[in-house]
Automatic annotation (TrEMBL):
High-level lineage: Bacteria, Pseudomonadati, Campylobacterota, Epsilonproteobacteria, Campylobacterales
Name the record gives this protein: N-acetyl-gamma-glutamyl-phosphate reductase
Main subcellular localisation: cytoplasm
Keyword hit for NADP: yes
Gene responsible for this protein: argC
Catalytic activity: N-acetyl-L-glutamate 5-semialdehyde + phosphate + NADP(+) = N-acetyl-L-glutamyl 5-phosphate + NADPH + H(+)
Length: 334
């Protein structure tokens, strides 16, 4: 199966290149960024003597001539214009941006005017543990955001047991690669080194994504109080959910039961850490209870489970391959 990567000069684009180079069923036949006219080895010096391919200026007709499926590792808004053209040319799309993740109203409230409204109903939310069947027959998969991936995998098993009307708090910590390769004052070494800070508390665009998916999957409405924070690491994401249960239920059993047939969620017996999932597609989850107080803890690699390896899992399912083909399990430890 021939595949294209658009946005190959970015952080998630590079992760896609690395995953697809060693994938047993996919072959990279086209890679692009906004300008083209450069060899991938000059774009990413880490690929010297590993991959020798010219990077093109992104063009949908060229993608359709060379590939059956395209990964869009593009900023939101840019993605939807490419996706629209590619789908019309019968190319399957896995979109890593936010463009097809939300219902139209929610999207337009938190992002911008949508330019491809017709394809929104055809898109499937690419969280395989909850949408596997739909992903398998999809032509367009909206890969979830990194924060929603880790938060939903932690929270969804417990939604039916949380006291309605109570507050759910999500404390979310991310490595700086979550912000992409663009330079910002926040990401400046002197600002982030040996430092930590919250940003956009209760206002982040992933809060409505989490609320919307809880409603769609579990038909329950919760006020999610989401606080993202930056920590001085390159990759990794640690989520801590705090909530109140209706009853003193066996939370360990609920978690084990939910994920017993899911290869890429590991239920841990103690609090999780980010190094054990870095470099992998795993989401590690741990749960603890103090009377009716609930603590759920999850960790992922924001660039992999939060973006590129989850995108390849979705592509595997869309193409009828095994979910785990070419998906990394060995963490960058120590
Ligand atoms: N980083 C992360 O942890 C996660 C990111 N995501 C999402 O994935 C997407 C990619 O993120 P990330 O890799 O971090 O972003 P980066 O900013 O690192 O890379 C963006 C890429 O998009 C390309 N691009 C921008 N505009 C165009 C255009 N008009 N035509 C062609 N290519 C274009 C850039 O190319 P050029 O070099 O030419 O500008 C670059 O390759 C985003 O939507 C992001 O929100 C999702 C989950 C996690
Ligand atoms: C650390 C950091 O800046 N993280 C990004 C989220 C990355 C991500 O998953 O964003 P998408 O919804 O665009 O896919 C942010 O807060 O905007």
């Amino acid at each position: 199966m021939n595949v294209a990567i658009i946005g190959a000069s970015g952080y998630t684009g590079l992760e896609l290149i690395k995953l697809l180079l060693t994938h047993p069923k996919f072959t990279i036949t086209y890679i692009a960024n906004s300008t083209g006219d450069i060899n991938v080895q000059d774009l990413h010096p880490c690929l010297k003597d590993v991959l020798n391919i010219e990077v093109s200026k992104a063009n949908a007709n060229d993608v359709a001539a060379k590939a059956d499926l395209a990964f869009l590792a593009l900023p939101h808004k840019t993605s939807m214009s490419f996706a629209k053209e590619l789908l019309a040319l019968d190319v399957k799309v896995v979109d890593l941006s936010a463009d097809y993740r939300l219902e139209l109203d929610t999207y337009e409230e938190h992002y911008c005017a949508h330019e491809d409204k017709d394809n929104i109903p055809n898109s499937v939310y690419g969280l395989p543990e909850y949408y596997k069947e739909e992903i398998s027959s999809a032509k367009l998969v909206a890969n979830p955001g990194c924060y929603p991936t880790a938060s939903l995998l932690a929270l969804l098993p417990f939604v039916d047991y949380i006291e309605e009307g109570t507050q759910v708090f999500i404390d979310a910590k991310s490595g700086i690669s979550g912000a992409g390769k663009k330079l910002t004052e926040l990401a400046h070494f002197a600002n982030l080194n040996e430092n930590m800070m919250a940003y956009n508390p209760f206002k982040h665009r992933h809060m409505p994504e989490i609320e919307e998916k809880i409603k769609l999957v579990k038909n329950k409405e919760f006020q999610i109080n989401f606080v993202p924070q930056l920590i001085p690491v390159t990759r990794g994401m640690l989520i801590s959910v705090y909530a109140t249960l209706k009853d003193e239920v066996n939370v360990e059993e609920i978690l084990e039961e939910t994920y017993k047939n899911n290869e890429f969620v590991r239920v841990r017996k103690s609090a999780v850490d980010i190094k054990s999932t870095a470099g992998t597609n795993f989401c590690d989850v741990f749960v603890a209870r103090n009377k009716k107080a609930l603590f759920i803890n999850s960790s992922i690699d924001n660039l992999l489970r939060g973006a590129s390896s989850q995108a390849v899992v979705n592509a595997n399912l869309m193409c009828g391959f095994e979910e785990n083909e070419g998906i990394p399990k060995l963490a960058y430890v120590p």
